């Protein structure tokens, strides 16, 4: 039986609770992500995608419902427990990369390890360099983030999100500000991580061409899941064939 990374049961989220403008944004979300899935989350602007990612990523608590990370229910955890679990289980990539502009690529990737372990060491730098290499960024590793292109910065952000070797990578419109080629580049890197390391990926995107390369597409409308489709193996195989062909070139 496949192993679960994430399970949501009846997740609800309201903002401004107890005020006259209280509003419920997520109306009971049930969703399970298995180890190794590569899943797209789609839906119109304002439907609750970011809210859902923040809840999944333990950045925000649900108003109701249960959230399990690798089978363990999380509602009993305090803020410190949630922070520790998040740090070691979940990586985030945001639409705006949130890199530290005055630091180099390698320093940005080292940052989560530094926060976790307190002081820099050779192993951290080695791990950061490996991650940058896997993102095809070795020539740029000592460049300041501010001097890199949008696509390169997002690849640094993916490398940083992987620094702690998370089971789950959550990406919120990571290619939203990129041109088609740069977007495909970032997407390919996430697919490669998923394939090589079995990292479970959930990526929010409005791009149907990218979503079609995922194994599953979940659609959210007005705070409810309205469809959840596993893509046929044929579509996946077609994508993989194209990749292999382009690698041989
Ligand atoms: N911190 C907040 N306080 C109040 N309302 C919020 C907050 N964050 C988001 N919302 C509202 O929740 C709804 C869903 O937002 P969001 O999750 O950002 O949607 P999406 O990412 O799909 O565009 C929107 O109506 C938004 O205005
Ligand atoms: Mg959003």
Keywords:
249 residues, four-stranded antiparallel beta sheet, 38% helix, 26% strand, globular, binds adenosine-5'-diphosphate
Report on this model:
The strands form 2 sheets. The chain has a 6-stranded mixed β-sheet with strand order 6-7-8-3-9-10, sandwiched between helices. Helices cover 38% and strands 26% of the residues. The mean pLDDT is 92. It contains 8 helices and 10 strands. Helix 3 crosses helix 4, helix 3 runs parallel beside helix 5 and helix 5 runs parallel beside helix 6. It is α/β, with parallel strands linked by helices and 249 residues long. It has one domain: P-loop containing nucleotide triphosphate hydrolases (Rossmann fold, 3-Layer(aba) Sandwich), CATH 3.40.50.300. The protein binds adenosine-5'-diphosphate and magnesium ion.
What is the distance, rounded to the nearest whole angstrom, between the alpha carbons of the first and last residues?
A: 38 Å
| CATH level 4 superfamily | P-loop containing nucleotide triphosphate hydrolases
- Widest β-sheet, arrangement of strands: 6-7-8-3-9-10
The helix content, as a percent range, equals: 25-40%
Based on DSSP secondary structure assignment, what is the total number of beta strands?
10
Main beta sheet: 6 strands, mixed
Shape: globular
Radius of gyration: 18 Å
Name every ligand kind in the structure.
adenosine-5'-diphosphate, magnesium ion
Overall mean pLDDT stands at: 92
Number of domains: 1
Counted by DSSP, the helix tally is: 8
Structural class category: alpha/beta
| CATH structural fold name | Rossmann fold
List unreliable stretches of 5+ residues: none
């Amino acid at each position: 039986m496949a192993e679960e990374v994430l399970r949501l049961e009846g997740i609800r989220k309201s903002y401004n609770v107890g005020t006259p403008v209280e509003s419920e944004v997520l109306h009971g979300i049930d969703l399970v992500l298995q180890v190794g899935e590569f899943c797209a989350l789609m839906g119109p602007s304002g439907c609750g995608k970011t809210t859902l990612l923040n809840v999944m990523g333990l950045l925000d608590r649900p108003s109701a419902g249960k959230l399990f990370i690798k089978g363990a229910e999380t509602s009993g955890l305090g803020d410190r427990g949630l922070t520790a679990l998040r740090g070691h289980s979940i990586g985030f990539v945001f639409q705006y990369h949130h890199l530290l502009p005055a630091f180099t690529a390698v320093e940005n990737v080292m940052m989560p390890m530094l926060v976790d372990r307190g002081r820099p060491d050779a192993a951290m730098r080695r791990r950061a360099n490996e991650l940058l290499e896997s993102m095809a960024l070795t020539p740029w590793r000592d460049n300041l983030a501010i001097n890199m292109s949008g696509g390169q910065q997002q690849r640094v952000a993916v490398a940083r999100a992987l620094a702690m070797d998370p089971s789950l990578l959550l990406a919120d419109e990571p290619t939203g500000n990129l041109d088609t080629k740069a977007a495909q580049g970032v997407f390919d890197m996430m697919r490669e991580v998923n394939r090589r390391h079995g990292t479970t990926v959930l990526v929010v995107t409005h791009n149907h061409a990218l979503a079609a390369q995922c194994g599953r597409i979940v659609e959210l409308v007005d705070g409810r899941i309205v469809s959840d489709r596993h893509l046929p193996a044929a579509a996946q195989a077609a994508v993989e064939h194209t990749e292999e062909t382009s690698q041989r070139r």
